[in-house]
Amino acid sequence: MSENRYRHVIYRVENGIGRLTLNRPERHNALVPELLEDLERALNQCRQDLPDVLVIDAAGKSFSTGGDVAGFYDTPRAERHTYASTVVGTLNKVICQLLELPVPTITAVHGMVTGGSIGLVLASDIVVAGPKASFAPWYTVVGYSPDGGWTALLPERIGRGRALDVQLTNRTITRDDALSWGLAQYGTAAGEQLATALSLATTLSGHKTGSIARTLRLNRPDPQHTAVALERERQEFLEQITTDEADRGMAAFLGRSA
């Protein structure tokens, strides 16, 4: 087995199966520049290793709670545009890396997935969800603009009207919703999502690699179209993050005085 330990990500390959673990459990794997840069490095290494399959999972109680609100709020407003551009821009690169990875990806989800971290799920080929898996945007509550593929990728998965309703009302997509709407393909009992994902990976690793690669290219969202849509999300996010409304929303979310 080979293993690379980054600050907030662990990547290893064993018996032809790659496994990438988000490893910032004390902050619910919230997305900060360092974690996203680790994901970039791990996916670059995965592209060199070319395992048969890549499994993505997360340590701790949550898969990921998206962009770290405290990270945005604590960044001086004059510097927040640059900070946000780094966070959302790097997340977009990671999403595109996953969509262009020439091996199938299986993501094992447990606990909360909020904000931009849904992009890691939407860019996956197969999603396995534990019973407490949930997905929520929080943008209209906190005062952000959608990123992470909420507009670029989710409507294709669950329908535009449904995706818009979820984002406007901040409705939580439950595990059962995710399964019935096509956001997830497999549901498991508590604590079994990773084992199920690894079992699926073992099955896929026995299939013909050339056939799998062509199947992925024909079925995945178009990378160029997706990159354009993600860039539009980034631009809207950057305009919104420096508004008074965003300041008030973040302060309220964090329980601080604006």
TrEMBL record:
Does the keyword Isomerase feature in the UniProt annotation? yes
The highest taxon in the source lineage is Bacteria
Record GO terms (molecular function): isomerase activity
Q: Which InterPro entries match?
A: ClpP/crotonase-like_dom_sf, Enoyl-CoA_hydra/iso
> Any idea which UniProt keywords this protein has?
Isomerase
- Output the CDD domains linked to this UniProt entry: crotonase-like
- Please give the Gene3D superfamilies that the UniProt record associates with this protein: 2-enoyl-CoA Hydratase, Chain A, domain 1
Q: By its UniProt entry, which Pfam families does this protein fall under?
A: ECH_1
What PANTHER family does the record point to?
EG:BACN32G11.4 PROTEIN (PTHR43459:SF1), ENOYL-COA HYDRATASE (PTHR43459)
What protein name is recorded for this chain? 2-(1,2-epoxy-1,2-dihydrophenyl)acetyl-CoA isomerase
